[in-house]
Design a protein that fits this description.
CATH architecture of one domain: 3-layer Sandwich
CATH superfamily of one domain: Rieske [2Fe-2S] iron-sulphur domain
Helix content: under 10%
CATH class of one domain: Mainly Beta
Largest sheet: 4 strands, antiparallel
Number of strands: 12
Length: 115
């Protein structure tokens, strides 16, 4: 784990690049939070793991045309922006920066306030 002091972000190793097939998603849990990490043609992305509509994890969904489809009610979100794209979802997903470095897919999560 490393800290980006300029952006107050912790970079956490989520997986190796080969752990996610292209056009797929995996679950990553860290420090009480759950994330969805995606791999699409132009790279890796991450968002909150839970659908904003109901309690379904997006890692159980389907990646289709740069969107993640929720497994429960088939609402879709744009993977890169988190934008809600189709009913019944209407609340956007929070997204997180991702970078590949030293053979690891790193997820940028907010640093916890030490105060």
């Amino acid at each position: 784990m490393s800290v980006d002091t300029n952006a107050n972000i912790h970079w956490i190793a989520a997986c190796a690049p080969g752990d996610i097939d292209e056009e797929d998603v995996m679950r990553f849990d860290h420090d009480g939070a759950s994330y969805a990490v995606y791999r699409i043609a132009d790279g890796y992305y991450a968002s909150d793991g839970w659908c904003t509509h109901e309690h379904a994890h997006l890692a159980d969904g389907f990646v289709v045309n740069r969107e993640i489809e929720c497994p429960l009610h088939q609402g879709r979100f744009d993977i890169a922006s988190g934008k809600a794209k189709s009913a019944p979802v209407c609340v956007h997903l929070k997204t997180y920066p991702v970078r590949v470095e030293d053979g690891k897919v790193l997820l940028g999560v907010p640093a916890r306030d030490a105060s």
